Amino acid sequence: MFLRPAISQQLSMAIRTALFGLLALFGLLAMEGTLAQEPGVQDRITLRSPAAKSSDWNAAQATESRGQIQNYDQLALSLISEDGTLLKFDSQQVQGATFVWKNKGVESALKLFDERKYRESISALNEARKVDTPRWQQQFIIARIVQAATAMGNTRTAGTLFLDLAASQPPPILYADMPLCWTVRDVEKPLLDSAKEWLASDVEEAKLLGASWQLFGPERELASKTLSKLQSSLNPTVAALAVAQAWRLVPPPETMAKYEAWLAFRDRMLLPLQLGPTEFLADRLQRVGEIDLAVDQWMRIATMHSDRYDRALRALQAAALNLSRAGRAEEAKKIEIWIDEMEGT
To answer: Is the pTM of this model over 0.70?
Structure first.
């Protein structure tokens, strides 16, 4: 869901400037995700422009290719183009894919997910992926199961499922579903225990996951050292996420000195991977009193990552709450209307 002009006109100038630029990107962003298409429609992929310059809302700059995806993994995507040519793309440049599901049973399972019937969708998706589904499409189904578990608050389960997915070397964009900790929050002991085990693993993805949840826990020192090492990972996705996770260790008074560099780094990441770092930025900006900038980042989440319902909704709720606290009731009310529409009320 994109912010309506009537709503955007009520926001501060700083927020409006960012949002107006996004409205022009509707056609491009609308194809992000992996929802099934009608039979006979070609698969589509979006490729980020390697020459694109970094800016606040620049991440969607991309080109499109159509055809039939043959395979898609951590390294490359193979596509038979419209003229029958076999093309290969570096997976680090693929920031979105929309494709026809080989197993049509997946579509009904995804409908449950879209209706936010997460528990039912997990069972349905797990069954659907077993029937006539290519390995690379199974990875996207498992990623959706991870999303469902995360939305239900089952972080430990989501973490375990993601690590199983990571072992199959999935496309980089699916690392956006790794249930990392990005904001200041209380962590319950069972999750801390699991995080400690993950941190002790020999698997980089497990180390990253564990470090994110232990960064301010009993294993803080080890978590910090682990993030430093992971920034040199041969897996560029792991390395980038480790860099962004390490921002959480920067003392709040140094936030604004780092802000522009953080934005530039975030905007160089594949669009789906930008969600977690943007959540960090919004949370940190709010904590240092930069409410307009924080609201800008929450709006970015709700607009550019609107397919992640639970996180987009949480971003809007945070924006409305902070505007209300700042005495900006009219602006908060406009966002509350958006929240009501998202919730279907």
So the answer is: yes
